[in-house]
Amino acid sequence: MTGWNASEIPDQSGRTAVVTGANSGIGYVTARELARRGARVVLACRDATRGKAAEERVRAAAPGADVQFAPLDLADLSSVRAFAADLPGDRLDLLINNAGVMALPQRRTVDGFEMQFGTNHLGHFALTGLLLPRLREAGHGARVVTVSSGLHVLGTVDPRDLNMEHRYRRWIAYGRSKSANLLFTHELAQRLTAEGSRVVAVAAHPGYAATNLQTAGARMEGREAAARLAELANRLFAQSPEDGARPTLYAATAQDVRQDDYFGPRFEYRSSGTPTRRTVRAPWTRNDRAGAGLWAASERLTGVTYDWL
């Protein structure tokens, strides 16, 4: 492993982090490494069995770690609200919006949103809004890190059809949801700056890492051959979750991070060297008008408002 790596994470003692989708893949590695450096880590996961198993794995990897599982289903806004209400303590230093779904067959969330847009963007938008007062209390060093994807370049958000009710295409839906992650980061960063807040909003993308994202959609449809092909591609071409987590961990802990940064591999496919803010970012993800429009729509759809910003 070359360049910046998890061994360079500063001491996180006394800090609290929430990591969504922390039961496997990049989310698990992110949670584990923060716990190793002394952070109190909440594993926010949909599946209780997998979440509790991940908690035990982190404890085994980081003896004495302060880590706990808490249930969170980003595809159900009532679950998002319950998680935020039940999160113990008043202080939160890091919110890692990591969980996501990719290229699923057309599905709806509990609240009726297109599943990829609803999970990847709206669930995290609501969660961030509900937890941001705690991040503000933490002050200097508090960050919101939202995990996007290099595949955001597949499409920008269409304000006339946020839920892709006309001609659903799974990969375009995924690209739009990941563009929404970046637009959200851009707009949040601007609002935090205008308020004079010391909370920093940034984004990251892992490149191509071997996780269960690649197989979930195929298995949901019973396409086992496609799932096995994806598993083979992961073994042959993908980088490890450890390498995939490096941009997220860098965005969460490095000293040179600025508002609205977007860190990823120097080469889009793999993390090679230190994560860089020069990774490819589509110009529409910095469009102020689009960001404000998505923000207003997200508040309306989720019922979570950021009035104090």
TrEMBL record:
It comes from the Bacteria. InterPro entries: NAD(P)-bd_dom_sf, SDR_fam. One of its GO terms (molecular function) is oxidoreductase activity. Keywords: Oxidoreductase. Signal peptide: none annotated. The keyword Glycoprotein does not apply. Transmembrane segments: none annotated. CDD domains: retinol-DH_like_SDR_c_like. Belongs to the short-chain dehydrogenases/reductases (SDR) family. This is Short-chain dehydrogenase. It comes from Streptosporangium nondiastaticum. The lineage of its organism: Bacteria, Bacillati, Actinomycetota, Actinomycetes, Streptosporangiales.
